[in-house]
Write a structure and sequence with these properties.
Number of helices: 20
CATH topology of the largest domain: Rossmann fold
Helix content: 25-40%
CATH architecture of the largest domain: 3-Layer(aba) Sandwich
Oligomer: single chain
Bound molecules: adenosine-5'-diphosphate, magnesium ion
Strand content: 15-25%
CATH superfamily of the largest domain: P-loop containing nucleotide triphosphate hydrolases
Radius of gyration: 28 Å
Number of strands: 21
């Protein structure tokens, strides 16, 4: 039911979105799921991209990849069904000079009747070339009579269950009705005042820019604000940590010798240096905040356990957080063996297996469930967070609040370009493992087109014949028989090999069993989703096959190949599917840092870190990669302001 709107009533920025006409309870719920509760939240749901539009008389190779506007008459309309009950309708348009271009539309079979042959239309979208044909992607089709849209095209992110048209309608209403006077943004720190502009016009410039430059100026303003918040949080975390005294855990020579004797590995120089660095910090009066970074397979776990033992030796508890249950389970299993007979209670605490936590020297393995749950961890001396790229700054802080001011060690195998690390982990001291442990050679990757599946099978057979074991990773669980889905691939491989299956929808005991059978060599092949990505450690695994490798990101592919070649034999990765740039990059180099740079170059945005996981929270205007100079400027200003406040 339409609500009565008083044209003069101004909308307060903090009013709930439901004051906007057309936003009912369902829409409000969907918006809330996207983090939009208030009208201001909606107005700061910024477009992801603002691009200039090029008006073309005919499609033109020089404009490929750009946003264009073309006019043409409907020439033909084709419809085709795609697998999975999806459809594609292709409308071919002819320009005045006789050249043609097409616009594909997915899952709108009824469109056909909207395009009578011969009728003229204006089409806006991104120009692409498929062979000799020109294709306008993400096409927006207008009648010739319609006002052409502005000279820029904005692209918004998607909100599940909310169409673009409705979103625009609400935005228009909010922009028109907003009580700008009620919109007071906090002043920016000195040194950034040049960015401090009036918010009303800025919001308008974000959503209704007359040109790209105006939009970009406004975007930078909001980017600065996001960066200020980000660094303020980092700065708070850093200061809070160094201001709080933590229990000190000194490691004298005798204890050091005892700890090293417990670790069943001869530590490399890098590992030993990192461990001593950590021990030094654990002995100090302030809580440690350290980041241990090292490529996949560089041996971070042993360092973490060496750190944990220093704390356990003095009767305090240690929490070890992993990003997946599978990884927590596996760490638990391995480390329980290492610590057998020490009197330390080594327990697993996950959503599916909640152990009762004893007091005294306790090493508890878990996932983030440990953070969010109501678990009490009295006497917590150290928190280890494995594969930190999956946790954010906020979660890190939450954890620290849990115990009695614990020391924190975070570990990441995602090499992060130095500058970005500075932003993400600005509150931590960084320790690095550069060299791999002896015998751990880099795993090269090779590309195989999907149709060479027979060759893949031969490679699997050969690896098994040589006493190795094989991981096969697929993108999806694929219950509906999706080709390439893990269930299907498992079924087909079972005809040839002794095969296990692991994915997120199986129960913990089922997963544990599959993993144990694989580790013990009862099965030769383990098929799984990316739950296999991190940390799964089976020394005999020598081959990893990634099905539909084009569906994975560079960091994931690099992580995945780190699963093999952990024993004495060399590992190998086969990346199946189309040869994308990402796949090619992973085949080209084994250097994680080089790959991280390649990833940045290919993606060029905060996507690299996955915003929700990065600790950036929701970034709406800031691009942590492109905006690096701006970030550095903001960081300096925030630190100056904090120092001044203290003085
Ligand atoms: P990551 O840094 O990826 O977490 P892990 O800690 O899982 O790496 O170690 C990778 C593999 O290397 C494991 O199988 C581990 O047992 C082995 N490893 C670690 N340190 C050493 C070492 N100093 N000497 C020999 N093998 C080691
Ligand atoms: Mg690890």
């Amino acid at each position: 039911m339409p609500k009565a709107v008083d044209a003069n009533a101004r909308i307060a920025p903090d009013a709930a979105v439901s004051v906007l006409p057309g936003v009912g309870p369902t829409a409000a719920r969907r918006l809330e799921a996207a983090g939009i509760r208030t009208v201001l939240d909606l107005l700061t749901f910024f477009p992801r991209r603002c691009r200039p539009l090029r008006e073309l008389a005919a499609p033109d190779e020089t404009a490929v990849g750009e946003l264009v506007r073309l006019s043409g008459k409907v020439h033909t309309v084709r419809s085709a069904w795609l697998p999975g009950r999806r459809s594609m309708t292709t409308v071919v348009f002819a320009c005045a000079d006789g050249s043609t271009f097409e616009a594909p539309f997915f899952n709108q079979p009824w469109l056909k009747k909207n395009y009578p042959v011969g009728q003229a239309r204006r089409v806006e979208g991104v120009l692409a070339q498929k062979g000799r044909r020109f294709v306008v992607q993400q096409a927006k089709v207008l009648s010739l009579a319609a006002e052409p849209s502005g000279e820029v095209q904005l692209r918004y992110g998607e909100i599940e269950g909310i169409g673009a048209a409705r979103l625009q309608q609400w935005l228009a209403h909010a922009l028109a009705g907003l009580d700008v006077k009620g919109l007071a943004l906090p002043p920016l720190p000195a040194g950034l005042r040049e960015h401090d502009l009036a918010p009303g016009p800025l919001l308008l410039a974000m959503h209704r820019p007359p040109d790209v430059a105006t939009h970009e100026r406004a975007r930078r303003h909001f980017a600065v604000r996001e960066a200020v918040e980000l660094f303020a949080a980092v700065e708070r975390a850093r200061r809070a940590r160094s201001a709080r005294s933590a229990r000190s855990f000194p490691v004298d020579d005798a204890l050091a010798a005892r700890i090293l004797a417990r670790i069943p590995l001869q530590l490399t120089d890098d590992q030993a240096t990192a461990l001593r660095g950590i021990w030094g910090r654990l002995a100090g009066p302030a809580a440690m905040g350290a980041l241990l970074q090292g490529d996949v397979g560089s041996g971070k776990t042993a360092v973490a356990i060496g750190a944990a033992l220093a704390v356990l030796a003095r009767g305090s508890a240690v929490a070890f957080l992993a990003p997946t249950e599978l990884l927590a389970e596996q760490h638990h299993q391995n480390v329980a063996r290492w610590l057998a007979g020490t009197g330390v209670a080594v327990v697993l605490h996950t959503a599916s297996s909640k152990a009762r936590l004893p007091t005294g020297p306790l090493l508890v393995f878990g996932t983030h469930a440990l953070l969010t749950g109501d678990v009490a961890l009295p006497g917590l001396g150290l928190v280890v967070v494995d594969e930190q790229h999956r946790f954010g700054v906020a979660q890190r802080m939450q954890l620290v609040q849990k115990g009695d001011n614990p020391h924190v060690l975070v570990m990441t195998a995602t090499p992060i370009p130095r500058t970005l690390a500075l932003v993400l982990f600005g509150d931590l001291d960084v320790l690095t493992l550069r060299k791999r442990p002896p015998g751990r050679r880099a795993v090269r990757a090779f590309h195989l087109p999907a149709e060479k599946w027979a060759r893949t099978l031969r490679s699997i057979r050969r690896a098994i014949a040589r006493g190795g074991r094989v991981f096969v990773v697929c993108p999806a669980v694929g219950e509906e028989g999706e080709k390439g889905g893990v269930v299907r691939v498992h079924e087909s491989l079972q005809q040839h090999f002794k095969c296990g299956l692991v994915h997120g929808r199986l129960s913990t005991p089922e997963r544990q069993r599959a993993l144990a059978l694989f580790r013990e060599g009862i099965t030769d092949v383990l098929v799984g989703t990316t739950v296999l990505e991190v940390g799964v450690d089976v020394p005999d695994a020598t081959l990893i096959v990634v099905v539909a490798a084009d569906r994975f990101g560079i960091a994931t592919l690099h992580q995945l190949r780190g699963r093999v070649g952990r024993g004495t034999r060399r590992g190998l990765a086969l990346l199946c599917g189309p040869r994308t740039e990402r796949v090619a990059a992973v085949c080209r180099t084994t250097d994680g840092f080089e790959l991280a740079e390649a990833d940045l170059a290919l993606r060029g945005s905060g996507e690299l870190l996955g915003t929700a996981q990065s600790g950036f929270g929701e970034l709406r205007a800031l691009d942590p990669v492109d905006d690096l100079p701006l970030l550095l400027q903001v960081r300096a200003a925030v630190q100056d302001a904090a120092a001044e406040a203290q003085a």
